[in-house]
Structure formats: structure tokens, C-alpha cells
Design brief:
This protein is mostly beta strands. It is built from 2 helices and 16 strands. It has a single domain, classed as Sandwich (Immunoglobulin-like), CATH 2.60.40. It is globular. The two termini are 15 Å apart.
Length: 230
């Protein structure tokens, strides 16, 4: 019987793991420096979060990685337990195609959480709460689900020609109109743990802003699906 499990997938900047099998990650350009008042000066309008299929479809890989019991990936549920795990890795690319910036601003003080940011004691930084959900499905339904908490929403990649960045970064989070935030598969926890899942053909589904916690003009473009073989 296919193992069914619920995994908490969290973007991390640390972790006690050793890569055993992997492919070279694609290059992601650094985000521009943030202007101190970028969130205050954001233009009016409504953001439209949307996934970019052509930036995601060719990024899926399977990798085996080993994790110690004290790794943040284990403690925060990115993997089902310590030891050797099989991971389905992929990029998540979310663009803002709306008429206004997505403005989250600065996270609260270390150790504190609020409605938007959750403090991660293991990682030593905040996560954006409820940013995206990852699902692996077969022809009967859900096989494995993952709930991704983004570490830092920022202007990583220009997707609309001529679009200017307002310099959102980890200290002043958000996404300018015409820019995208890229979570590359090389980042810790940018995966679904498929350890024990039977070989076969599956559908990977990524849903950004699944609970509608962030302002978003068109939820209909928040879903990406692609077929993958384990």
C-alpha cells in the first residue's frame, strides 16, 4: 500500500545533511538591495500571485539525502525522519502579475510571531506562514502532502520587461509588480519526501497562497501541475 503521510515542508537556511545524489541547481540571481522605505512607498493596486509553469516544469529531480536526528529538516518535518530519505525536488517560481506590489514588510523581532510571520527556533529566522502547499497525487487522490513555509519573499527575477524593482528582500519582504520570487530546488526543504512511495507515475501539484492569507487578485492562476515518474 502506498504510504500516505503529511509532511511540513519549510524553507531553511541550515541543516545537518549530506547530499548523496543530486543534480546541479540552476543559477538564481541575487535579489537587489532593499530601499529602507520600499514597503511604505509601494504603489496602490492589488497583487496577483501566479506560478510560472515554464520556469518550473523542467526542474524536477529525485535525490537521496541523509539527515541526522538533530537536523532542522527532521525537527521541523521537512522529512519523515532521520536517515537516508528520497526527495522529489523542484523549483517554485511565483510572480506578481497584478497592479500593485505584494507588501509584507519587516518580520517581527527574533523569537516573536504574528499573523504573517512564524518564528523558527531551529533555523533562527522567520517563515512566511501558509505560503504554498505541495501535493503528490496518483489516480486515486492524494499520496503525500507538504506544506511549505517560505523563508524570504523578495524580488529575485524580473519577469515583465521594463518592470522596476522596489528592492524587497529578507529584511523588508514583498514582491514588486512584474517580478518573481524563486525558490530553487537546491534550497533545503524545497522538496517532497517521497521515501517509501511506490514506483509509478504521479502528479506534482503546487498551490501558492492556498488559504488566501495574502492579497491576491486572481486565485485561479495559483496552481501548477506536472506529471512525474518515481
Amino acid at each position: 500500500m502506498v504510504r500516505r503521510a503529511l509532511l511540513l515542508v519549510a524553507v531553511a537556511a541550515c541543516g545537518d545533511n549530506a547530499v548523496l545524489v543530486d543534480a546541479a541547481p540552476r543559477d538564481v540571481p541575487p535579489a537587489p538591495d532593499a530601499a529602507p522605505d520600499a514597503a511604505v512607498d509601494a504603489p496602490p493596486g492589488t497583487p496577483d500571485l501566479k506560478l510560472i509553469p515554464e520556469e518550473m516544469a523542467g526542474t524536477l529531480i529525485l535525490a537521496n539525502e541523509a539527515f541526522g536526528g538533530g537536523a532542522c529538516e527532521v525537527i521541523e518535518g521537512c522529512v519523515g525522519g532521520p536517515g537516508l530519505r528520497r526527495l522529489l525536488k523542484f523549483d517554485t517560481v511565483t510572480a506578481n502579475g497584478g497592479t500593485g506590489d505584494l507588501v509584507l514588510g519587516a518580520p517581527p523581532a527574533d523569537g516573536a510571531s504574528d499573523a504573517t510571520f512564524t518564528w523558527s527556533a531551529c533555523h533562527g529566522h522567520h517563515h512566511v506562514t501558509g505560503y504554498a502547499r505541495y501535493e503528490l497525487l496518483d489516480d486515486t487522490g492524494l499520496v503525500v502532502a507538504g506544506h511549505k513555509q517560505a523563508f524570504c519573499l523578495q524580488d529575485t527575477q524580473q519577469v515583465q520587461p521594463g518592470a522596476g524593482s522596489r528592492g524587497y528582500n529578507c529584511m523588508n519582504q514583498g514582491m514588486s509588480v512584474g517580478w518573481a520570487d524563486v525558490y530553487a530546488r537546491s534550497l533545503p526543504c524545497q522538496w517532497i519526501d517521497v521515501t517509501g512511495v511506490a514506483p509509478g507515475t504521479y502528479t506534482l501539484r503546487v498551490v501558492v497562497n492556498p488559504e488566501g492569507a495574502l492579497p491576491d487578485a486572481d486565485p485561479d492562476n495559483n496552481v501548477f501541475e506536472t506529471t512525474t515518474t518515481l
